[in-house]
Amino acid sequence: MTEAEILFAEVLGCDRMSLYRNRALPLNAEISKYIGTVLKRRIHGEPLQYILGKTEFMGLEFKVEPGVLIPRQETEILVEKVVQEVTKSQGHNAISLSLLDLGTGSGCIAVFLAKMFPAAKITAVDISEQALRIAKQNAILHGVDERIQFIQGNLLSPYAVRRTQYDIIVSNPPYIPSWEISQLQPEIAYEPRIALDGGEDGLDFYRKIALTCGRCLKIHGKLILEIGFGQLEGIKNIFQKNKNFEAIEVIKDYNNIDRVAIIEKR
Ligand SMILES: C[S@@+](CC[C@H](N)C(=O)[O-])C[C@H]1O[C@@H](n2cnc3c(N)ncnc32)[C@H](O)[C@@H]1O
Hints:
The protein contains eleven helices and nine strands. A seven-stranded mixed sheet has the order 5-4-3-6-7-9-8, with helices on both faces. Strands 1-2 form a two-stranded antiparallel ribbon. By secondary structure, it is α/β, with parallel strands linked by helices. A hairpin with a 2-residue loop joins strand 1 and strand 2. The protein folds into two domains: 3-44, no CATH class; 68-265, Rossmann fold (3-Layer(aba) Sandwich).
């Protein structure tokens, strides 16, 4: 859907096709004033998702607000890969699956996977209190709040995380090099820096994850990570140096960019 379609479908309370089929859509003074306000904010660069307070991810609606990263389409590839890996190793029921979502943000990954695998034990960590508040609201929205343990903390440092061994740790960590953030499109300035900034070369979080994740993964457990453009070699270097991990499998996105790295625990 284009942004115009999303906006008009939202304010008129109809689906995309009705915008084209229904020639008598109820545009009144209140609605046109609202559209005017939205357009002004949009022209200043504010992302439409923040203006509307929601977005779509894997076909589900998620609440978002400034301070919480807007889920991206690329991350759907990460989630699809997790689904494939779980189904391959545990079947569709995934009764014994224990999974950690590191840096959960809006909770889009954890919530989708909790819906997909109703018997799985899912933990979601974020350092941001605001992100966790929204993630919990999204879990309630989708009826999976009882099934996800939300923990505030720095990566794997919370006690409940440190002492657990997971089958899968999934993460879309901050991975944009610090210097690059100010050069990206103006919408990015509205998003929380803490969700984007991966340090000087963008790889800080992969280094931290490589150092600490080994002990929290079961043998043959998998680390499934979203990665940024041109980062594969750096990430391979980080994980190949660490004796906890086996070789890396890489999945490309629809633009042929390396997007997901799967790393197995020895
Ligand atoms: C790129 S966003 C991903 C959000 C969400 N998982 C998604 O894919 O849309 C990274 C997330 O990591 C969180 N984060 C940043 N530093 C962290 C840390 N040291 N420990 C835990 N979470 C952190 C941010 O608050 C943010 O929500």
